[in-house]
Amino acid sequence: MKESELSTEPIGQNLIKLISNLCFSVFVFSVLIFTVIAITYQPPDPWLESAPALTKLFTQTENATFKNDDSILKTGEDVVLVASPEVPPALAVNPITETVIKKSEEKILNLNLKSDCEDLKFVNCSDPRVLVTVERFNLKTFKFIVFLEYQTPVNGSKLDECDVAWRFRNKKEKSWRKYKDFRRFKFGIGENCTYNVVHAGGWHSGINARRPRNRPNTTRSSGNLRLAPLVGDEEINDTIPTLGSEMNFRKGKYLYYARGGDYCKGMNHYLWSFLCGLGEAMYLNRTFVMDLSVCLSATYNPSNRDEEGKDFRFYFDFEHLKEVASVVEESEFLRGWKKWNRGRKRKVPVKKVTTYKVTPMQLKKDKSTIIWRQFDEPEPENYWYRVCEGQAAKYIQRPWHAVWKSKRLMNIVTEISGQMDWDFDAVHVVRGEKAQNKELWPHLDADTSPDALLTKLKEMIQPWRNLYIATNEPFYNYFDKLRSQYKVHLLDDYMELWSNKSEWYNETTLLNDGKPVEFDGYMRVAVDTEVLYRAKTHVETFYNLTKDCKDGINTC
């Protein structure tokens, strides 16, 4: 009996040891997995999605399932960001509300103005009661608009008319920019011998209240080109700042990104990389050296070819960028660098970084005047955005709030919305390559056919509403069937806004050294996007018009 117990005891002990070792191994393996996850985890980017997801979205070109949807283009003014800066004090304006109007009326009462109806027979446009009447009328009529400031009314074309100009902002826009309108109002006499608005003219009808832009030269010629007199947006100031003296240059700290593989990629790829560089500069507390020359991808060109030499300011708001970030234009920076080094034994200290694997954290304490990142490796190792991957994603936040669409493009958006009196619905119709790819989007073509669209929209939008269609469908008459039920508006209905007689044409031509600028595919999509966001009812292709998934079959 004792021999049997002795013989079995080692087996039990070995079994216990085996189980203990197995449990310990599982524990160690779990700790290892958790550690790897903790190290590689990248927190959400402060824009819309996580850094890896947007990187994949913006750079994937081989797999059509994840091909970026370039029919909608979001920038900083379209999203609410926790990191967004407050309105600069110089630009802060209190909106005109009912409370403000009542205070104005109290001041008018203290003036003891006559209220004899005979005195009001002919409208005195400078009478403060006229402006109060217009302010209250606009407040009740345009509920999606924030009114910021008015000019004193001026005479219209008749004795009972006044032209009034004001600055405003759409409530759906997250920027602090101001836009202008001027309209003609016809007045009558209401109760207690007060003014009331009998009729209000349409968008930009009050031409006497329009103020021409103050410029020394109202015409400018370049070769055989002669520009019309400008009535532009005097609030746009996208001039390139100078560095000033050589000493000012030497006192600065700069982050300089050499051109990499991102050049001539899609615009979303460009932004993803550009904001990585700008974010690193902010992290390092340095001025970002900026190349204003943009290569527009063939995706946005009718010629289907990449086009170099486009100006950043055609597409984005450089003035706003200068307000919220420290940037210097590349040629201005190189001029200052060259000027300082000329004839001096002691050159500007430069730290050359030849691989993205040198992280921003490693450069944080570098004292060099210039940190020069070079991207000479083969693709995709030479993409700027690689700098912000891995551990760097925890430290570098892309400053999406710094990138707004060009004010010149936004003026076109405002013009289109204003011509519809801000009272319109919109549908985003995605067709193009996705509608042709039946393997990934089997129902999209049929679901966005004119008959299908009409059937679906009847369920969501009231008949005879203004209906703006944002679309990548190239055939203008494709949506004609919808005109039987709606007042259809397409971007091409407003071609005069970028024609050779337009404010946009004049402004961009001057910006481009007298050479006309094409209203290209990226500009079209940018305008379509912003008009779409200002609609009262907003219908999307995916989730509203078709059961197909936005990114292809089985991706919903």
Shape: globular
**Which structural category fits the helices and strands?**
alpha/beta
* Helical percentage: 25-40%
Can you tell me the number of structural domains?
A: 3
Q: Write down the Rg.
A: 30 Å
Mean pLDDT: 84
Q: How many helical elements? A: 16
- Low-pLDDT segments, ≥5 res: 1-8, 36-67, 215-231
Layout of helices and strands:
Elements: H1 2-40, H2 51-59, H3 98-110, H4 128-141, E1 145-150, E2 154-155, E3 161-170, E4 179-189, E5 195-200, E6 221-222, E7 225-226, H5 246-251, E8 254-257, H6 267-284, E9 287-290, E10 293-296, E11 307-311, H7 312-315, H8 318-324, E12 327-329, H9 330-341, E13 350-353, H10 360-363, E14 370-373, H11 407-419, E15 425-429, H12 432-436, H13 444-447, H14 450-460, E16 466-471, E17 487-489, H15 503-511, H16 521-533, E18 538-539
Parallel strand pairs: 8-9, 8-14, 9-12, 13-14, 15-16, 15-18, 16-17
Antiparallel strand pairs: 1-3, 2-3, 3-4, 4-5, 6-7, 10-11
Helix pairs in contact: 3-4, 11-16
